[in-house]
Amino acid sequence: MSHAGIERRSLTVAGNDEVGAYRVLRVHDPDGPPPAPGQFSMLTAAERWGGGEDERPYLPRAFSVMRVRDGEAHYLLEDVGPGTNRLCELRAGDDLLVLGPLGQGFRDPREDRRAVLVGGGVGIAPLAIWQDELLAREAPHALLLGFRDGEHAEGANLLRCAKTATDDGSLGHHGYVTELLAAELDEQPHAEVYACGPPLMLEAVRALCEARGVPAQLALESGMACGFGACFGCVVPTADGGYLRVCVDGPVVDGAELAEVVAH
User: Fold this and answer.
1) For residues 164 and 161, what is the distance between their CA atoms, to the nearest angstrom?
2) Residue pair 76/158 in contact by the 8 Å Cβ criterion
């Protein structure tokens, strides 16, 4: 998808809702370009966007579009550092600078395969907008989500009909979401997997799908400085010895393109 004509826009926050360990940042964006499932935006608070005595600016943060509803774009946040903390502080009426939607999104399943959506942590975000589209089409699919504990697992309520795994066993399957995926593929092997989450989870999904000959589309997570391919800060190695830029060649890539998913 071309990024031509995409410019940073000043938008207004509609709300900031707490969902377990996460926050859903809702942004007024009735006239914005419609995102494809799996695309992302670069978000920056318009004010107090810096830290330390000299207010050194934080880099914009890349967030998958979780869904678009009633003229609002929704983003899933977790407060894990100074940059995300500043975004989590935003409230209705605050201004937000948004660049996007950017990147390559999910593609339809091949060969009439059934879609199997696999998410971990904040990686559930792009699966929400993808599930919305699949539901609108009445397309059969499975949804498997993994979290570290029950507080984080409340994020599953943002999607529909999920099978859930937690690391500590506080909700759903006690174990990893990849164990749910293995069981799902045992039952329905004619599938195409769509996954987003931390690198270790994505690598486990990639290896599992490779071993079973199941195509997988992986939405990679990576720190980005620009979002449109200029800085080469988000390159990852490919199976053929080359590299791809997550922001423009991804974030969604075929698992077969990668020798492994590495932490970035």
Assistant:
1) 9
2) yes
Please spell the DSSP secondary structure of 224-246, one letter per residue.
-SSSSSSS-TTEEE-TTS-EEEH
The reported pLDDT for the residue numbered 37 is 98
119, 209: one domain? yes
DSSP string covering 120-142, please? EGGGGHHHHHHHHHHHHHT--EE
Confidence of residue 87 (pLDDT cuts 50, 70, 90): very high
Rg (CA), the chain: 18
Whether residue 159 is found in the same domain as residue 246 = yes
Tell me the H-state helices in the chain. Answer: 82-89, 125-137, 150-153, 177-187, 199-212, 246-249
Examine the domain organization and report whether 169 and 64 are in the same domain. no
CA distance 262 to 114: 27
Domain end among 102, 130, 157: 102
CA dist 107 and 194 (Å) reads: 9
pLDDT one-digit tens code per residue, 63-83? 999 999 999 999 999 999 888
Domain that holds residue 32: 9-102
Query: Whole-prediction pTM value?
Result: 0.93
Indicate if 121 and 98 belong to the same structural domain. Answer: no
Q: Say if residue 240 is in the same domain as residue 163.
A: yes
Q: How many domains does the chain have?
A: 2
> Does residue 123 sit in the same domain as residue 93?
no
Per-residue b/e over 219-253, b at no fewer than 16 CB within 10 Å? bbbbebebbbbeeebbbbeeeeeeebbbbbbbbbb
